[in-house]
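Researcher: I'd like a candidate sequence for this fold, 140 residues long. If you have to choose between options at a position, lean toward the conservative one.
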């Protein structure tokens, strides 16, 4: 099974990873894992001012801050994931990439806000559920 792990470095990511490794019969090393981090894009003027190379280095560094602890944790459980990051709106990017990449499952942590909070401020999980054609497992 191809599993898309959407991570952001939050405590909710840690809960999702804990769930993943405590269910090896479902999510063991026999699966193919991809760790994905969405980076907030620089404003267009800032990107133009610093140049494409500096912007790409910034995105790489920010993604590494989030992905490296995840990769280290998974390695302790005999899981070697592929690591991917992109700059853009997290919910849309997670859903689009998981669908176009032919993944069987998206796993992600969720803050667990209520319906009113989602209505007012939106939620990455809500956006993924609305746009993703792949089953999504939210861990709270």
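Model: Candidate sequence:
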């Amino acid at each position: 099974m191809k599993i898309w792990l959407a991570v952001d470095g939050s405590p909710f990511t840690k809960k999702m990873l804990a769930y993943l490794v405590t269910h090896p019969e479902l999510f063991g090393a026999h699966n193919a894992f991809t760790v994905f981090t969405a980076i907030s894009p620089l404003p267009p003027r800032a990107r133009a001012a610093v140049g494409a190379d500096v912007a790409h280095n910034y995105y790489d560094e920010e993604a590494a801050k989030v992905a490296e602890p995840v990769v280290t944790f998974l390695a302790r459980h005999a899981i070697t994931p592929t690591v991917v990051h992109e700059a853009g709106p997290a919910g849309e990017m997670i859903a689009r990439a998981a669908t176009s990449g032919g993944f069987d499952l998206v796993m992600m942590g969720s803050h667990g806000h209520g319906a009113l909070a989602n209505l007012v401020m939106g939620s990455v999980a809500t956006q993924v559920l609305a746009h993703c054609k792949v089953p999504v497992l939210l861990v709270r």
